[in-house]
Amino acid sequence: MLVSSDYLVVGAGASGLAFADALVAEADVEVTVIDHRRAPGGHWLDTYPFVRLHTPSAYYGVNSLALGKDRIDEVSENAGYYERATGEEVFEYFAEATGRLTQTGRCRVLTRHEHLGAGSDGEQVRDLSTGELHEVAVRRKVVDARYLEASIPATHATPFQVAPGVRLVPINDLPAAAQSGCSYAVLGSGKTAADACIWLLDNDVQPDRIRWIRPRDAWFYDRSHFQPLEQVGAIMEGISLDAEAGAHAANVDDLFERLEASGRLARIDPAWPATMYRGTMLSARELAALRQIADVVRLGRVRRIEADRIVLERGETKTGAGVLHVDCTALGLNNAPATPIFQPGRIVPEACTWIVTQRHSGLPV
Ligand SMILES: Cc1cc2nc3c(=O)[nH]c(=O)nc-3n(C[C@H](O)[C@H](O)[C@H](O)COP(=O)(O)OP(=O)(O)OC[C@H]3O[C@@H](n4cnc5c(N)ncnc54)[C@H](O)[C@@H]3O)c2cc1C
Fold it and tell me: How far apart are CA 306 and CA 285, in angstroms?
């Protein structure tokens, strides 16, 4: 079957839906959005049960529909800051945004459809429910909204070997697998690993029962600088701190030291060099909680987990049958190289500010 559309948007995650939403609002065009997942929402469909947006809800989603009610949280690590949607709320939000898009009559959203690439008569799309192959004749552009597709623990291929009998779960299964008396080895350096540790601490696991296998130490933004609305002055302050540090820094190391000294960036252990910067953020309360974990293994990435030891790039550490290993090693946003957003026949939506900063910071992203 040959169908036609002005735009074919590949990927119904935040990028694809936001792009389609803006197209439908701004131009008299027909848009087809496809995704090989079972529903719109991208990586939020497979996310861990206690995940929340890193940023306030006010910043996230499509232009035409607000996410959340701009409430200020009163309890927990986000107290005093604007609400951050749970994974389930984000998922429901994207379902509603998709419903509104399709109601315009100018946008169709096809889930369980996979883009295979350009064919002789158009873009090749496979309906994964029936196996049928369709050609979509694209009158204007293909929008590659999968370019920054997130890699998450629930769906990535575990990048190390695991011996039979070792208890290893993706962070998604942590609440179901956690048991009293258990010890934990949290694997990963980033925000997902931090979330796993905070979940354990919040659920009364003593810090000395948590071993954090942290190949690299990360820089985190202070969440106070990312508040909208009544607290928007904090954003201006954060930007001015960036500008001031950038203006005076002699080199990249000096830049990060200045950003830390100003309170813009923080690392969990100020005595240890941080070499990773992925633009994620923590509140002061989260930082304080994470600093309780003293058993940090810094021997590089995990190569394999055996019954009684974890073999890493630069050594090994003990483990055992009473240890639940929690996989938080997925990449998150992928490291696809920067590419022109507007290309012949193709548009590649990308986040332009902090990702550019990351890519030009000289640090591994
Ligand atoms: C735990 C977590 C929390 C985050 N919190 C925030 C936050 O608070 N604020 C923020 O701005 N960002 C946050 N991010 C970053 C977030 O990843 C992005 O903002 C955004 O959700 C990514 O959307 P995306 O559409 O680019 O990617 P994805 O959500 O990964 O969507 C890409 C889609 O493309 C589909 N696809 C891929 N290949 C094909 C193909 N060949 N055919 C059809 N479909 C295909 C995939 O199935 C997928 O659904 C967070 C990320 C994570 C992992």
Answer: 35
Nearest partner of 146 among 22, 42, 31, judged by Cα:
42
Helix axis angle, 14-26 to 87-103, nearest 10°: 30
Digit-coded pLDDT (tens) for 180-194: 889 999 999 999 999
Strand spans (E) along the chain: 2-10, 31-35, 107-111, 113-118, 123-127, 133-144, 161-162, 168-170, 183-187, 210-213, 218-222, 265-266, 276-282, 296-297, 302-305, 309-312, 315-318, 323-327, 342-343, 346-347
Tell me the best of 8, 36, 90 to mutate to test the pocket of ligand 1, counting ligand atoms within 8 Å of each CB and taking the most: 36
110-114, 223-227, 331-335: range with lowest mean pLDDT = 331-335
Residue 61 Cβ contacting ligand 1 at under 6 Å? no
pLDDT of residue 359: 46
Q: Does the beta carbon of 87 sit less than 6 angstroms from any atom of ligand 1?
A: no
